[in-house]
Each structure stands twice: as C-alpha cells, then as structure tokens.
Task: structure prediction
Amino acid sequence: MRKVTVTCIVCPSSCRVSVREGGEGLEISGHQCRRGLEHARNEVKNPMRMLTATIAVTGADFNLLPVISSAEIPKKMLIPCLRTVYGLRVQAPVKEGSVILRDVCGTGVDILAARTITRAPAG
Ligand code: SF4
Result:
C-alpha cells in the first residue's frame, strides 16, 4: 500500500490530506471539503498544473512577455511544454489574452499572452 500526504492548494487553509492507495482503491482523509477530496484524488491519479512563463518579445520596451496556459495541463507534460514555450519569440504589439501557441505539445491547451505589450516608439 502506498501512502502520500498532499497539501491541498485549492484554498488558503492548506489542509494536509492523506491518501492511501491499495487494492481497494483510494482511502482519503484529512480533507475539510469535497474540493479537497477531488484535489487529493487528482494529485495521486493525474496531477494538473497551470503553466506560466515568460517568452522573448521584440519591438517593445520590454524584452519579455509573460504567458499563461489557457487551462491546466498534466504535470508530467510541464517540462516538454516549457521547453517549447521558452523557444517562442513574438513581435510587439501583443494583446493580453491573444493566443501565442495553440495546442502546446498536443495537450489541447493554448498558450496565451498574460499582458498587453505595445510597440516601442520609433527612434
Ligand atoms: S480541503 Fe477544502 S478547506 Fe482544506 S484546503 Fe482544500 S479546499 Fe480548502
């Protein structure tokens, strides 16, 4: 039987939730609500995370554009997705929420601009 302790990150209470995985499925304890139960189950079965990063931008007063995934992606896909994202380069102007990359690494999730960046004034 495998036992893990998960810190629930769904709300600021940060409950410590125990998950025992055995022949009869999962035994989950220590959660204070149903959302914590779901979170602990997902953490053991298929942990998901939002991806945030910065990518290169040219033609602006800033060198970097913050980006965020449109939804959570499987945690095991974070490193390959980050490798892809860090290779991106965009040209200003960029509008917050615009799609920078569709379907990153076949996850079905898009990479979006997390802020608006205007073109640098000429000269
Ligand atoms: S188990 Fe419920 S109360 Fe506890 S941190 Fe998670 S969401 Fe918050």
About this structure: The first strand starts at residue 2 and ends at 7. The mean pLDDT is 95. The pocket of iron/sulfur cluster is lined by residues 8, 10-11, 13-15, 31-33, 35-36 (CB under 6 Å). The radius of gyration is 19 Å.
